Amino acid sequence: MAWSRQSIIGAGVLGLLALPGPASAQSFSGEARLRWDGHNNAQLKIGNDYQQVLFRGVVGADWEPDPHLRLFGQVATGQLDRGRGAAPPNFQNDAALQQLFAELRVEVGGGRLGAIIGRQEFADGPRQLLSLSDGPNIHRSWNGGRVYFQSQKMRLGAFELRATRQGGGAFDEGTNHAERITGLNASLALAPELRLDPFWIQSANPSLRSGGRIGPDARDTFGVRLWGRQGDVRFDWTLAHQRGRDQKADAKAWGLFAVQSLALSGHAWKPRLTSHVDLASGGSYGNATFKGFNQLYASSAYLGEGQFLSLSNLFMIAPGIAIAPTPRTALALEYGFARRLSARDAAYAGGMRPYAGTQNISGRPIGGLLRGSGSWSATKQLTLFVNLEHFRAGALLRRAQFGSGSYVHAGATWRY
User: Fold this and answer.
1) What predicted TM-score, i.e. pTM, was given to this entire model?
2) Over pLDDT 70: what percentage of the chain?
């Protein structure tokens, strides 16, 4: 869906004018994020060092003329302090119509039936597959519709969405009809703090990077997610299977993602032992089948915003610890041991980018990723944060002429 200047002006008037009526409810929201990034040997290329400052600004208006209708609009900008001309539009963007949708809802059968139509952000289910893409300045957005039914014990949903084609200017976005996701999802309450979420996602991307190549990829991802807490244990486990068509062969892949933590104490600093185990299949083209897993639109922060690893051809175990020295402070530290599952396929960096040449080198250890993070909520609106990552290259990457690398960011987010 393409957005005209008239529709943008209309959305602004709709969201900003105070309309009369006792049933009308209006609210406004805003976000400003300022972040400094520092890269040492970025992409594990020796000497590829740089720094940058990023800014994200978002304003939104929410209007509910009656209990059955909600209208929401949001405009965002993204700015860099350098390299603006070469930066992608999700980092450098004068102004983007980020969201503009209508939500219709009605109470039925002891629950709520609703539909959301228009441009919208979307992240549902495991963040290893679908996320908002919070690392860049501009979130990922979609165009289309989704319907849902939710009650106290269950939620059902269906969606048909096309990717937004971003531009770096002011309100120059369009719709990429060739890049889409369609699917069904559900969430069932098995116990007061235990949920089971089956899902199906059909994805099509005309320019996906996979197997060291860039080309069309169409897949069906079937999976189930079990998450919740039992006593002192929190967990979030996902099993996914993919079938479809890679750019030159049939695709058949699988992934298993298990995140868990154990509370050691509910007092003082509230320490928790944490861990995540990630397995995602990989394999070269053979017998007309490519077995590499497609991480779809995974969270950029899940395996580290340094983008040293992707969820493809990966076996990773990452134990760690998290503490909360004060109610407003959170600190976490972990170390991940990464190996590749298939020695016939490459090791992959962020964005499904293969480390060139690793597919021709024997050995499975990729390296180790040390991650530390901290945040402090200074006020209800202001949060300060810091993140440090160091990736120690294993023998496989060193033999392919890659080195170790580091990434650090620090900044502040203000939300209203």
Assistant:
1) 0.90
2) 92
